[in-house]
Design brief:
11% helix, OB fold (Dihydrolipoamide Acetyltransferase, E2P), mainly beta, 7 strands, two-stranded antiparallel ribbon
Length: 88
């Protein structure tokens, strides 16, 4: 059985970087994913005609070289595609 997840969304905060005692870089950031809210199979709209969106927040952790790349090139508000696994 595979544990694979692909998320597409916007970075919520500037990535935070930590370093372990073994010099491994760990980068954390929050990712917002949104989808339209449905009621009886139809998209809900507010009083101005805009779609009502449901937003979910995800905590993403990157290790090593990937963590370094994310810290150097990603910032708040950027759209990103994350491929990884779910771990609780």
């Amino acid at each position: 059985m595979q544990n694979i997840v692909i998320l597409a969304g916007n970075i919520g905060q500037t990535p935070e970087v930590r370093t372990t005692q073994g010099a491994t870089r760990i980068t954390n950031f929050s990712l917002a994913t949104s989808r339209p809210r449905l009621s009886e199979g139809r998209v809900l709209r507010d009083e101005n005609g805009y779609r009502v969106m449901d937003t979910e927040w995800h905590r993403i952790t990157c290790w090593g070289g990937l963590g370094k790349t994310v810290a150097e090139h990603c910032e708040k508000g950027m759209k990103v595609l994350v491929h990884g696994r779910i771990h609780y």
